């Protein structure tokens, strides 16, 4: 799997309590979606947690013009929670935490992820990116493209 820097939300980024990821241009997503294959969101743990949290919630946030923020989740997908990652999953560096298709017919121009821990996390880092219809693990690194 080849990562595209234009389709990356997080690249080895620490999350302690909450974080809004980098923004992806919705036009790029729509262009890829024309292939007929689903766009998959991939979330990996690039540095394991040394203590536990109840869970990490990941929401898709969007905005029509400005960069989306934490409060921009109540939109056409009903404030869609993409995944709740349990504490038991955050102990192995390199672990795939989530892979799932993005909702179809994305309406807004700017997309990001909002990550929210139910209790403070100490050291975990995450990588999140889009891939085109892939369910195969690629090599995961923390290098910037």
Keywords for this structure?
40% strand; mainly beta; Jelly Rolls; five-stranded antiparallel β-sheet; 6% helix
Describe the structure.
The C terminus is likely disordered. The chain is mainly beta and 145 residues long. The chain is globular, with a radius of gyration of 14 Å. It has one domain: Jelly Rolls, CATH 2.60.120.1110. 6% of the residues lie in helices and 40% in strands. The protein has one helix and nine strands, in the order βββαββββββ. Strands 2, 3, 5, 6 and 8 form a five-stranded antiparallel sheet that branches.
The total of beta strands comes to: 9
Q: List the total number of helices.
A: 1
The major beta sheet can be summarized as: 5 strands, antiparallel
Strand composition percent: 35-45%
Q: If classified by CATH, what would the architecture be?
A: Sandwich
Can you tell me the CATH topology? Jelly Rolls
Order of helices and strands: EEEHEEEEEE
Overall shape: globular
Low-confidence residue ranges = 74-78, 138-145
What is the average per-residue confidence, as pLDDT, rounded to a whole number?
A: 76
Number of domains: 1
């Amino acid at each position: 799997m080849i990562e595209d820097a234009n389709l990356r939300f997080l690249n080895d980024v620490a999350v302690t309590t909450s974080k809004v990821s980098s923004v992806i241009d919705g036009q790029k997503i729509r262009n890829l979606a024309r292939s007929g294959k689903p766009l998959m969101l991939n979330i990996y743990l690039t540095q394991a947690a040394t203590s536990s949290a109840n869970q990490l919630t990941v929401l898709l946030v969007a905005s029509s013009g400005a960069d989306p923020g934490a409060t921009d989740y109540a939109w056409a997908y009903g404030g869609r929670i993409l995944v709740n990652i349990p504490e038991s999953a955050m102990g192995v560096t390199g672990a795939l935490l989530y892979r799932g298709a993005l909702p179809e017919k994305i309406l807004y121009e700017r997309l990001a992820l909002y990550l929210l821990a139910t209790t403070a996390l100490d050291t975990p880092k995450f990588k999140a990116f889009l891939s085109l219809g892939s369910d195969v693990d690629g090599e995961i690194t923390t290098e910037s493209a």
